[in-house]
Write a structure and sequence with these properties.
The chain is mostly helical. Helices cover 62% and strands 5% of the residues. The protein contains 5 helices and 2 strands. Helix 1 (13-37) runs antiparallel to helix 4, helix 2 (46-77) packs parallel to helix 5 and helix 3 (108-143) packs antiparallel against helix 4. The relative contact order is 0.22.
């Protein structure tokens, strides 16, 4: 048995899915923390409320923009993967025409591994930014002076942000395939 020490194993799908599920449960479940820590008698400065809303909106936007930027820059820094043209058995060739071809990766396992490695960190950062919106909802509940209905939308938005970014992002796959000009094997 030969062991390759030049490559580390990319994180598997189960790890990514469990982390995504845990963060989703936290984003929605953090509303319970807000209920228990809610201080209705405290007096909050309205400036803090608007500041937290502004930061939450910024984090919500960055939870989509930053992972895509990191993924694209990560692809630029990776070593290239060889792509080759092969005959497409599913396409129909007309008489006297060249047989249709499709571009595939020469090493599909390396392509799959590179895809998993390059999407792992940006996905986690996107989820963390989404969950941070729930943290601002908890802060609003702790600061107090406001009805609980003000902090609950933060938790709903946080859960929606994490749910909107599933463990296998289809837009990551499209960017990866267009960057290399070949279809990623399933």
């Amino acid at each position: 048995m030969q062991v390759r020490l030049d490559r580390h194993q990319a994180p598997n799908r189960r790890t990514r899915t469990l982390l995504w599920a845990a963060l989703t449960v936290y984003a929605f479940g953090s509303v319970l923390v807000s209920v228990f820590l809610h201080e209705p008698d405290a007096v909050a400065d309205p400036t803090i409320v608007w500041a937290l809303i502004g930061v939450a909106v910024l984090d919500a936007g960055m939870s989509f923009a930053l992972p895509l930027w990191l993924f694209h820059n990560g692809l630029k820094q990776r070593s290239p993967i060889d792509v080759e043209d092969v005959a497409d058995p599913d396409a129909e060739a007309l008489f006297r025409d060249m047989s249709p071809t499709k571009r595939v990766f020469s090493d599909p396992e390396l392509a799959r591994d590179t895809f998993q490695r390059t999407t792992y960190t940006p996905a986690i950062i996107g989820w963390a930014l989404g969950v941070s919106v729930a943290m601002y909802g908890i802060l609003l509940a702790i600061i107090g002076g406001l009805p609980l209905a003000v902090s609950v939308p933060f938790h709903v938005v946080a859960g929606a942000l994490v749910l909107a970014q599933p463990p296998s992002h289809p837009w990551f796959r499209r960017i990866f395939e267009s960057f290399y000009g070949a279809r990623l094997p399933d």
